[in-house]
């Protein structure tokens, strides 16, 4: 199971904690428990800050955003929502290629890919973790792609795009289906990006 090594807060400390390593660990401890118990949508940064005894601005300083805190709380060095945010920056016409290259570059790196594979196994074996991660995917990946695309059927296109991406990951890195598993990155992008691009286009005349 994916886990994060955390230190306990300093005993006897009172009031708002300064930005120390123990403060960061205390925030992560609260965040991880709340995410797993309450889900992603229901947890607010203010609630985590209040329980951890810190100012909410300190969470933003340490982790940048709610999705950044989620990745850190679950020990994700390679945090999928943040990887997507990076891939969405740039020319809209080449977005599928950027997404595929980001996936391949990240998963092919031994340490990052190994961690992501552990996460994928946990999703299949642990219902509570799967429930939590599904919320994150719907909000921070499908939701972000839909916002990026725009148009009346953007959520449907974003969901179809995400399903294709998930299938590519499963085929190459979990099932290790040949010849997908051993294709060089450039070849994989050349074969698969047209399908991703096609699903991003609305099948309804007059819609974007």
Automatic annotation (TrEMBL):
Keywords, sorted A to Z: DNA-binding
Keyword Metal-binding annotated = no
Instruction: Cite the residue spans of the region called Disordered.
Output: 1-23
The chain positions of domain HTH tetR-type read: 21-81
DNA-binding region, residues? 44-63
The protein's matches in InterPro entries, at most eight in alphabetical order, are given as: Homeodomain-like_sf (IPR009057), HTH-type_TetR-like_transc_reg (IPR050109), HTH_TetR (IPR001647), Tet_transcr_reg_TetR-rel_C_sf (IPR036271), TetR_C_16 (IPR041678)
Task: List the molecular function annotations (GO) for this entry.
Answer: DNA-binding transcription factor activity; transcription cis-regulatory region binding
In Swiss-Prot or TrEMBL terms, this protein is called DNA-binding transcriptional regulator, AcrR family
Give the source species.
Parafrankia irregularis
What does the organism's lineage look like at the top? Bacteria, Bacillati, Actinomycetota, Actinomycetes, Frankiales
């Amino acid at each position: 199971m994916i886990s994060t090594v955390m230190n306990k807060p300093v005993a006897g400390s009172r009031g708002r904690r300064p930005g120390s390593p123990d403060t960061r660990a205390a925030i992560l401890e609260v965040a991880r428990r709340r995410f797993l118990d309450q889900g992603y949508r229901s947890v607010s940064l203010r609630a985590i800050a209040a329980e951890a005894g810190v100012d909410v601005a300190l969470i933003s300083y340490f982790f940048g955003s709610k999705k950044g805190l989620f990745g850190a709380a679950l020990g994700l060095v390679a945090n999928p929502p943040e990887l997507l945010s990076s891939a969405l920056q740039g020319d809209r016409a080449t977005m599928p290629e950027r997404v595929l290259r980001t996936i391949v570059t990240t998963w092919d790196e031994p340490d990052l890919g190994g961690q992501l594979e552990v996460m994928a196994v946990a999703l299949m074996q642990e219902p509570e973790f799967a429930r939590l991660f599904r919320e994150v995917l719907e909000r921070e990946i499908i939701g972000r792609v839909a916002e990026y695309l725009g148009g009346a059927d953007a959520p449907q296109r974003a969901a179809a795009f995400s399903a294709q991406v998930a299938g590519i990951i499963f085929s190459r890195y979990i099932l290790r289906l040949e010849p997908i598993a051993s294709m060089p990155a450039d070849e994989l992008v050349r074969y698969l990006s047209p399908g991703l691009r096609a699903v991003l286009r609305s099948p309804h005349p007059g819609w974007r």
